[in-house]
């Protein structure tokens, strides 16, 4: 991990998790960097029969993922704003980070131009003010300029904000974008996060994106870092892998962390404090399956006859990758590197990156490991780290549901980064 800011206070300790079993409870104790500790618990039967050497952190996370009722801490509130929020993947992780550190999460603002996703956010965090539209409507001034009238109003409403998080649109930085990569106009939205910090002055900042954001031709990460350092923040950046923090998905994200309190945590701090062995696909979804009558959330997408035949071919021949002769002409007749497309997931490995195409066998390795179908939205949500208490009931169309789940960020990444910042 490299620090673009100065190394002041870089030796400060980071919170560290530990886990124990007591009766039917797995207890998580978070030893805070300033001395006190906070203990939370998840319950289950038959914990006494866990094999020797079982990783209790993984057990705790699995139990939390299956929780059907949200439980909050009764401690001091921590206020959270989520820009480019989607349906709330980052906020779910921050919500649990607040509980782990003895705080009560208060979601004060969510902004996104996807109204379906924003509606789901509001269902789950009803106290939040919802802004349906571009972030430029809230933050409309130039970096370094005096705040506009609208920005002053926003700063007044959010005075004393603890955390701002955001995942600006990443398509312009994605390696899948072969047209405007590194020079896409959407890349400049990353700088709206810097402007928000300039205006509102939250205590802590998390900005996430695809790893390629660091190579943007206009230097959005470098410019954001310089702005935050000039404003008195300690800043660190790194590429994090979700599996390092107990996720069941091999997703890599670039994160920029900034804080006015001590030093921003390093990659070593995060892994030492919150590292948990990766979970497999079946660890995450083994108890879900298709639920007839469960609506679009618990049923898979329908496939064309030719794609059904491709799925059957995998199972009939005990294969994980579809041979070229069974692929469409665009793969079969020329060299390609799309080995995972039309593929079947491995039961005992983490999932590949979940995208909005998880319902289609032709958009990635999204065929279920054991069943002749692609993932249900419920299964994809589990792999993204949405616990079962998080509801998507307001969504009526499968395409909208797949888009918001696929565009989310694994909640474990937000959990580890935000918990490392809170005191």
Describe this structure in words.
The protein has 423 residues and is α/β, with parallel strands linked by helices. Helices cover 28% and strands 16% of the residues. Strand 1 and strand 2 form a beta hairpin. 46% of the residues are buried.
Overall SS class: alpha/beta
Helix content: 25-40%
Report the span from N to C terminus.
23 Å
Q: Mind telling me the C-alpha Rg?
A: 22 Å
The unreliable regions are 1-12, 173-183
Main beta-sheet annotation? 7 strands, mixed
What do the pLDDT scores average to?
A: 91
* Main sheet: strand order: 6-5-4-7-8-10-9
Query: What are the secondary-structure elements, in order, as H or E?
Result: EEEHEHEHEHEHEHEEHHHHHHH
Shape: globular
Strands, count: 10
Figure out the total of helices. 13
Strand content: 15-25%
Write the layout of secondary structure elements.
Elements: E1 16-22, E2 25-31, E3 37-43, H1 56-65, E4 77-83, H2 89-100, E5 104-112, H3 115-124, E6 129-132, H4 149-157, E7 163-166, H5 190-200, E8 204-209, H6 220-230, E9 234-241, E10 252-259, H7 267-274, H8 281-285, H9 305-316, H10 329-332, H11 377-384, H12 398-406, H13 411-421
Parallel strand pairs: 4-5, 4-7, 5-6, 7-8
Antiparallel strand pairs: 1-2, 2-3, 8-10, 9-10
Main attributes of the structure:
423 residues; alpha/beta; seven-stranded mixed β-sheet; three-stranded antiparallel β-sheet; 10 strands; 28% helix; globular; disordered N terminus
Give me a quick take on this structure.
The chain has helices at 56-65, 89-100, 115-124, 149-157, 190-200, 220-230, 267-274, 281-285, 305-316, 329-332, 377-384, 398-406, 411-421; strands spanning 16-22, 25-31, 37-43, 77-83, 104-112, 129-132, 163-166, 204-209, 234-241, 252-259. The chain is α/β, with parallel strands linked by helices and 423 residues long. α11 (377-384) packs parallel to α12 (398-406).
